[in-house]
Amino acid sequence: MLQGHSSVLQALLGTFFTWGLTAAGAALVFVFSSGQRRILDGSLGFAAGVMLAASYWSLLAPAVEMATSSGGFGAFAFFPVAIGFTLGAAFVYLADLLMPHLGAAEDAPTALALNFAPALMKKSDAEGPGLLFPESELSIRIGRAGLLSEGLAVGVGFGAVEKTASATFESARNLAIGIGIQNFPEGLAVSLPLRGAGFSPWRAFWYGQLSGMVEPLAGVFGAFAVVLAEPLLPYALAFAAGAMVYVVMDDIIPEAQISGNGKLASWASILGFVVMMSLDVGLG
Q1: Nearby residues of 267 by Cβ (< 8 Å), 6 or more positions away
Q2: What is the DSSP letter of 72?
Q3: Which entry of 115, 120, 190, 225 is 20 to 30 Å from 139 by CA?
């Protein structure tokens, strides 16, 4: 992330950074076993807190400011932000509904891994194959979260730089740092279930880091979109925030709560929120 360069290049560099931290998190599969669920739940809680704080300070606050300063909405400046936020959440929800019908029952890394290890599949019932490891659901959700929200959020954040007083390079940089921080446990959340399914540590790491590979593509797309269509910026920022908040509420928090580590996950969420808020307010 180098100040003074084009927003598209900034988005590319920022999302390469977030991808790198996803790989670093996946590398923890060499240290932790698949049975250490408390570590995973605490990490997911922390990631949820970071995503919630980033959604407001790095995305929603600039979106509201842009809608207010545009002068065309008056007292209804909240309207484009509300529309974008709702559309972002609806987009992720519809993707959930459509993925099984499109043959994407698993996220790309998990599906690719299983293609190389067909012995890990079994016939669970007459409807078709099932996975030998129940944690595969988590891999699906985390892969989708990276694809639909995080990379897009970083790209839109850099595309919005200097459009308003609060949309600064520092704000976009802090968003990328925050997304990278919460990608660290997400990489672990993808690699650990694969390790528990019988993959070697190296293969589990490889497929875990693949879950972050889509973020540079989404980031560049988001930056291009807002550069080419600047009036859509409030909608785009709110869209990215809505997608992230939906993923947190529908996937990450419930997943962190189901194994008896709910209090740990909740306090980790508070810590993640405070860390991201401090980054945005203190360094923005």
Answers
A1: 45
A2: S
A3: 225
